Amino acid sequence: MPDTTPTPPPPREPVGPPSPETHVIDYRAAEQLLEARDPRGAVRLLDSVIAAHPENTAARLLRARAFFAAAQLRPAQLEFELVLEREPDNAFAHFALARTHQRSGRHEQARRHFRLAAALDPQPEYLAAARFEG
């Protein structure tokens, strides 16, 4: 007797390039992956977002954080520096770049960025890292 079990249809291929909505979904999913301690998964999602929107500083900052969390210090440094080229007054980017330099053993560069972060935003954490009194 012939098998009459229906075969499932093949998976649908995406039609056309990803939409802006897809990039927003990928960005939000990358935030959740980073929070769930999967920085490499976050980087994978953000690569396509940044390829489509290279000027998106928020996506670059999130990818820099993911690189840092994955101990990929050189890519993290490059992303933080790119963010700071576009937003030189971004205190968090200075602070995160300082942490990256610190982990890489470049203490003078770290101190400079800790101080810039504290000067831009005198949060207790930034002040302590810069060794300013808070």
TrEMBL record:
Keywords: Repeat, TPR repeat. Residues 1-22 are annotated as: Disordered. Residues 1-20 have a biased composition (Pro residues). SUPFAM superfamilies: TPR-like (SSF48452). InterPro entries: TPR-like_helical_dom_sf, TPR_2, TPR_rpt. Gene3D superfamilies: Tetratricopeptide repeat domain. The keyword Repeat applies. TPR repeats lie at residues 91-124. Pfam families: TPR_19 (PF14559), TPR_2 (PF07719). PROSITE patterns: TPR. This is Tetratricopeptide repeat protein. It comes from Streptomyces katrae. The lineage of its organism: Bacteria, Bacillati, Actinomycetota, Actinomycetes, Kitasatosporales.
